[in-house]
Amino acid sequence: MKVLIVASSDIVGGAHKAAYRLHRALLTHNIDSQMLVQNKNSDDYTIIGPTSSLRKYLINPLRPALDHIIMKMNSIKTLFSSSYLPFSEIVRQINKIQPDVVHLHWVTGGMMRIEDIAKIKAPIVWNCQDMWPFTGGCHFSGSCKLYKESCGNCPILESHRTNDLSKKVIARKSKSYAKVPSLTVVGVSKWMAVCAGESSLFSNRKIVNIPNCLDVNLFKPIDKNIVRDLFNIPRNKKVILFGAANPTTDQRKGGKELFESIKLLDLKSVVLVIAGSTRPEKVEDFKYPVYFISPLRDEVSLPMMYNIADVIIVPSLEENLSNSIIESLACGIPVVSFDIGGNSDMIEHKKNGYLSQNISSKDLAKGISWVLEYDNYKKLSSYSREKVLKEFDSKVVAKRYIELYKDVLGGQ
Fold first, then answer.
1. CA–CA gap between residue 288 and residue 233 (Å, rounded)
2. Tens of pLDDT along 317-338?
3. Environment class of residue 42 by beta-carbon count within 10 Å: exposed (0-12), middle (13-18) or buried (19+)?
């Protein structure tokens, strides 16, 4: 069985990491897997990147910026992809490789036009790492449910026109998808699978729920004293860790709600660590010391970073299946988050963390206190890892994908 995983990048960005981890897991199960990317950041020989220096250093790095010109022209503040940009080499490469199954992941950022999808000759499996495959251009729709119909009057575009850009994008998708004879949709969270099934574009397609996977031999508990010394974090304090690509500027990541919740806490011997950001010129005035850890990408330093914590907060207001939550739990660190998106797939309330039922800083603070003051922290930590071993371990998840590929190929 020859599988080709397609994503706009390999190891940079959460959705791309998820695709790469699956690729590596398939290889360990003796599946002939390759990964095709627009921008290659690793030196992995099983990943196919740009074939010429012009594309590698100029054309492909420029494509995401060119694809987002429409966003800038319309002053769109959140990620919105129209995927109009032509002259992609990707589909030609896909068909030249002649895989048995093409497994799409995150393919925006100028990687291919919507119309290119219909030109793929092999059966397609498509992982919805966000909502873009079935919306009129947004990656997360917020409270808007117009993707269930045909979009238009898009709140993200601040549009009051029925025939706006979102309407045109979803119409292009509908026309292109109709030409694809074999398309199986994967919601990596139960929530995403439901959303995809409710959409006008995928309501007549097969939809399954299979999560992202993780190498539990890399992400595992490590002695806290050792890793705290490495990151210069006090040994004798309770550590609250918050990590995101833009923890202090990306509104969707819930930094505002987190910081408000920290101010509501009444705990002793606590420090706050913000990961994924260098120390800004001005730091919020907390009653607790604040430490910053610069962005980390490799799968050796990331587990060490998680293990400095006693509790990890993932306060995202919109989320599919957070890599951070799976990674944290695998390291035996309980997680506190809002009960949105796929968070409940990973966090079992008061078993391996705390799920706040409301977008409430007060309840988030309650969850943080509950974890740090729980009288059997070792039980929380142990169950956190057990959850990942049972449901998200690469060995477990890869087998589910292999069965899906066999099903797509008619049992071959």
1. 13
2. 999 999 999 999 999 999 999 9
3. middle
Residue 101 contacts residue 1 (beta carbons within 8 Å): yes
HSE (side-chain half, CA atoms, 13 Å) at 113: 14
pLDDT digits (tens, 9 = 90+) for 148-171: 999 999 998 888 999 999 999 999
- Interval 14-61: pLDDT, tens: 899 999 999 999 999 999 999 999 889 888 999 998 876 766 766 667
How many domains is the chain built from? 2
**CB atoms near residue 412 (< 10 Å):** 9
Distance CA 382, CA 133 (A): 37
The CB-side HSE value for 219 (13 A sphere, CA atoms) comes to 28
Q: Are residues 294 and 192 in the same domain?
A: no
Residue 218 is assigned to a structural domain of this protein: no
Which of 196-200, 307-311, 316-320 has the lowest average pLDDT?
A: 316-320
Examine residue 189 and state whether it is found in any structural domain, yes or no. Answer: yes
| CB-based burial, 173-195: b 16+ in 10 Å, e otherwise | beebbeeeebbbbbbbbebbbeb
The answer on 295 and 202 residing in a single domain is no
Please tell me whether residue 204 adopts helix, strand or coil conformation.
coil
Reference 397, options 7, 22, 4; nearest CA is 22
The whole-angstrom separation of Cα 192 and Cα 211 is 10
**Which residue type does 52 have?**
S
Considering the domain architecture, whether residues 302 and 158 belong to the same structural domain is answered as no
Q: Same domain, yes or no, for 163 and 28?
A: yes
Which residues partner with 208 through β-bridges?
A: 186
Question: Where are the strands (E) in 254-309, listed by range?
Answer: 270-275, 290-293
Q: Which residues pair with 34 in a beta bridge?
A: 4
Q: Are 391 and 385 in contact (CB under 8 A)?
A: no
| Contact call for residues 135 and 141 (beta carbons, < 8 A) | yes
Helices (H) and strands (E) in the chain, counts: 15, 13
Say how far apart CA 156 and CA 363 lie, in whole Å.
Answer: 28
* Residue 387 to residue 235: CA distance in whole angstroms: 27
For 344, phi and psi rounded to 5 degrees? -75, -15
Range of the domain at 47: 2-213+393-408
DSSP character string of 335-397: EEEES-TTHHHHPPBTTTEEEESSS-HHHHHHHHHHHHH-TTHHHHHHHHHHHHHHHTBHHHH
CB 122 within 8 A of CB 99: yes
The domain that holds 119 is classified in CATH as: 3.40.50.2000
